[in-house]
From TrEMBL:
Domain of life: Eukaryota
Organism: Acrodontium crateriforme
Name the UniProt record assigns to this protein: Uncharacterized protein
Transmembrane segments: 20-43, 64-88, 108-127
Record carries keyword Transmembrane helix: yes
Alphabetic keyword roster: Membrane, Transmembrane, Transmembrane helix
């Protein structure tokens, strides 16, 4: 009787045992998770900088943006690019190994890849306010004027950042999470 239970338990748990294909299928989920995590972290980071006393929203904030954007932009772009490309590859791989289930699962990867590419497509809307804030780093002009510009540009940046996070990044993460969860059961 016990042997029967062990065999049936192994058969029941078989879909949860990792297989080689699973490791590649989680890459878009990992990079998309990083994108969402960093996007959410930027709210308290930049809000605290704008509310610091004494204010650092003037030239110091511009210097921060000028220094931050150089390493950050390639990192965020590469994370979105890896999510998009690996999502397409995973979707293609699942579709190529077509069964009724994998074809349905592959759609989640493709949708996630399209949404991850939307992160890249929205970069110009987010980059404009960042560039205008970083322009104040050279110290030309009075700090009160730079602070006023930075606060207005941060409102614009927060708007576009929120729209992108809610309409692109979180749905992409959900699509990849759904794809990974389903692929563990069918691959």
């Amino acid at each position: 009787m016990r042997v029967t239970w062990v065999l049936s338990m192994e058969q029941t748990m078989a879909p949860l045992q990792p297989k080689g294909g699973h490791f590649g299928l989680i890459l878009p989920l990992c990079t998309s998770s990083a994108t969402v995590g960093l996007a959410l972290f930027q709210y308290p980071l930049f809000s605290s900088m704008l509310s610091a006393t004494p204010s650092i929203a003037g030239a110091p904030f511009s210097r921060f943006w000028a220094a931050f954007i150089k390493p950050a932009a390639p990192f965020f772009a590469s994370a979105a690019l890896v999510s998009a490309v690996s999502g397409v590859i995973c979707g293609r791989w699942l579709h190529t190994h077509a069964t009724l289930e994998t074809t349905d699962v592959s759609r989640f990867y493709v949708y996630g890849a399209v949404l991850a590419a939307g992160h890249l497509a929205s970069m110009p809307a987010v980059a404009g306010p960042i560039k205008r804030m970083a322009d104040g780093a050279n110290g030309d002009g009075d700090d009160a004027a730079i602070e006023k510009v930075n606060r207005e540009e941060m409102k614009t940046w927060f708007l576009w950042h929120t729209v992108r996070t809610l309409l692109v990044d979180i749905p992409a993460l959900w699509c990849f999470a759904e794809g990974v969860a389903l692929s563990f059961w069918v691959v």
